[in-house]
TrEMBL record:
Any coiled-coil regions, as ranges: 3-103
Keywords linked to the UniProt accession: Coiled coil
Protein origin, superkingdom: Eukaryota
Organism, as annotated: Scopus umbretta
Annotated gene: Myo5b_1
Name the UniProt record assigns to this protein: MYO5B protein
Length: 149
């Protein structure tokens, strides 16, 4: 059973390897054909007169530049869209900042009172009590009730 399993795995690997080799051969054949076409085109241009060779070269360069130009145009459009989006976001944030500044200017007294209350609360929380507690005798029932709850 163990050898059969190994043999089956080996056959699977061999089949995969053969498929890969076949795919690579097909790629090589396709590349050879493309190379032959390019060589023939090159030889044909060499057989042409110098004027026609220059014209052919210019046509190829024009084609390349046209494609490059289209790519750049596409990139420019994308950047312009992004710029519009960012300008809209900037306007929204500027409006929020103005609203926030206006709200700050309207209630400075209220905020100061709130900040003082917060400071007082923080100061009370930061005190570190140690030792015995001093209290009035009449506050004892209230104190016990608060300690229990």
């Amino acid at each position: 059973p163990f050898f059969r399993l190994l043999e089956a795995q080996l056959q699977d690997q061999r089949r995969e390897h053969e498929e890969e080799v076949e795919a690579l051969k097909n790629q090589v054949d396709a590349m050879k054909e493309e190379m032959e076409k390019q060589q023939q085109a090159f030889l044909q241009t060499l057989q042409l007169s110098p004027e026609v060779q220059v014209e052919f070269g210019l046509q190829q360069e024009i084609t390349r530049l046209t494609n490059e130009n289209l790519d750049l145009k596409e990139l420019l459009e994308k950047l312009e869209k992004n710029e519009k989006k960012l300008k809209k976001q900037l306007k929204i944030y500027m409006k929020k900042v103005q609203d926030f500044e206006a709200s700050q200017a309207m209630v400075p007294a209220e905020r100061r009172r709130h900040e003082r209350n917060m400071q007082a609360a923080v100061q009370r929380k930061e005190k570190d009590f140690q030792g015995m507690l001093e209290y009035y005798k009449e506050d004892e029932p209230l104190l016990i009730r608060n300690l229990v709850t």
